[in-house]
Amino acid sequence: MSPRPAGAPTADIANISADSWTEHFWRAARDHILVCALCGDCGTYRMPPTPFCPSCNSQNTEWPELSGRATVYSFTVVRHPVTPELNDSVPYVVAVIELDDAPGARLFTNIVECDPDTVVIGQAVQAVWDDVADGVTIPRFAPVSDPPR
Amino acid sequence: MNLKDQAAVVGVGSTDYYRRGQSLPQTSYELAGKAILAALEDAGLSIKDVDGFAYYSGGLNSGLLAQMLGIPEIKFSASLTAGGSGSAGSVGLAAAAVVSGQAECVVSVMALQQVPTGRFGAAFAAKSGPYAQAASPESSFVTPYGAFAPGHFFSLLAQRHMHLYGTQREHFAEVAISQRINALTRPKALRKTPLSLDDYFSARMISDPLCLFDYTMESDGAVAVVTTSAERARDLRHPPAYVMAAAQGGDGRWGGGITWMGMPDDLFATAGEGAVANSLYERAGVGAADVDVALFYDHFTPMVLMQLEDFGFCKPGESGPFVAEGNIRFDGGSIPVNTHGGNLSEAYIIGMTHVKEAVEQLRGTAINQVAGAEIALVTGGPSSIPVSAVLLRR
């Protein structure tokens, strides 16, 4: 396992439970690959994965591999730990991001490897992989050097 | 069929309000019972008249209440789904039960006791104890990122609103300060120290851009309201507060809302209540300009701003300048908001204090009385579908 990204909150909270629809995402994450649910019929992206396409109700689902490029849609800098487990994690950045090659799909994540006070909406970020435990890998996102869009 | 003016809120009652945990050794059902009996006394009714319960946020155990208080028969017991978003809607549910003939005297009640194991902010993150929640396939996309507490989620909406419209922290502060002023005159209010802009900006930041005073408080207490038919209401102790209209639900594209964050761009930086607002006004046959006092569910200051927009008191994106001009002040505002101090400064009983205040405003007996108030708007908390709202009139 590689070192954890700087600014990622404690691994204590990284419990993952999957069902038959979300397991594709978490299995790919173990291999450091970001996938997204894509309707095989109408081409609508959806995240997190659910059993039906909300546009056409098809269950025919594909799992394309994404580039990991994304854009910050909104964020908060958490400065107060709501539980003692987070005492050593604050400040950390919780963000909602849009996946650049899966239009319409968003994810919760953390923006890591940067000063929290430099994060802005519209910032370009790239997936980095956090191997938090044996068999559990979580995608977080770090700024790339491009100017904000 | 339309509910309009066929049912009325006739009684309101509450316990004292307490800081978190200070209501002990009373039990939560004891608090509920005290509020119910107070509301019935206010109405001029007896516990023997009660035949229904209309709840939200899961509700209470009607059988236990019947056993504890000696209610002869329960004919209706139901709850809105989701959480505090249903507070106003529970009155609509009560009115629906009455108007459809399923029950005649329906109580809506919330009892809150935030004992150490039941603190909301920490509850979602607890790894052990009674409030610990196992990871679910849905929460696995959220909690590993340290997003647990309601403030984390609402700060994301607030940040986006600031980005899109230039909304400032000063605008959030105006919500906190104006409501604090309203609480200063109220004997039961829990926060009665004047709040200055300096105080606001000196407060600790919790989930940036939200600081301590952008959050509601943790408190204990109970509030109950009694709804009956318009016909019966006319013979009771106080002038009825007629239910003009009620609405609950929300735009399907809001979806999982704040715990999923997939809302489309045109809905994201809103309170998610626009669809309910449209239904409400259409059913009542009135608009924002007809509302004399607005009781907005205020768990977080920015959500008051976004509700001003969703309910048509100003245009989308303009709520910051709107409040900066003094429009939500009790003293001289064009639409006085949360004249009781709200969740932010009076007490956080998950929105039911707002219903009580609306009724008192329409009776003309409110502590901070809006002169000539004839129509009051009450909303449930922006969060997950169903959100809700009710219009009451004198």
Question: Describe it for me?
Answer:
The complex is a heterodimer of chains A (149) and B (394). Chain A has one helix at 23-30, and strands spanning 37-39, 45-46, 61-62, 69-78, 92-99, 106-111, 124-133, 136-143. Chain A is mainly beta. Chain A is globular. The mean pLDDT of chain A is 95. Chain B is an alpha+beta fold and 394 residues long. Helix content of chain B is 33%, strand content 17%. In chain B, helix 6 packs across helix 11. Chains A and B meet through strand 4, strand 5 and strand 6 of A and helix 5 and strand 6 of B.
Short description:
With 149 residues, chain A is mainly beta. Chain A has one helix at residues 23-30, and strands at residues 37-39, 45-46, 61-62, 69-78, 92-99, 106-111, 124-133, 136-143.
Given as residue ranges, the uncertain stretches of chain A (5+ residues, pLDDT < 50) are: none
What string gives the helices and strands of chain B in order?
EEHEHEHEHHHHEEEHEHHEHHHHEE
- SSE order of chain A in H/E notation? HEEEEEEEE
Q: End-to-end span of chain A in angstroms?
A: 33 Å
Q: How many beta-strand segments of chain A?
A: 8
Please report the two chains with the greatest interface, counting residues with C-beta closer than 8 angstroms to the partner's C-beta.
Answer: A-B, 41 and 39 residues
Radius of gyration of chain B: 20 Å
The average pLDDT score of chain A comes to 95
Described by strand count, sense and barrel closure, the largest sheet of chain B is: 10 strands, mixed
Tertiary shape of chain B: globular
Principal-axes geometry of chain A comes out as globular
Mean pLDDT of chain B: 95
Question: Gyration radius of chain A, to the nearest Å?
Answer: 16 Å
SSE class of chain B: alpha+beta
What is the terminal-to-terminal distance of chain B?
Answer: 22 Å
Number of E strands of chain B: 12
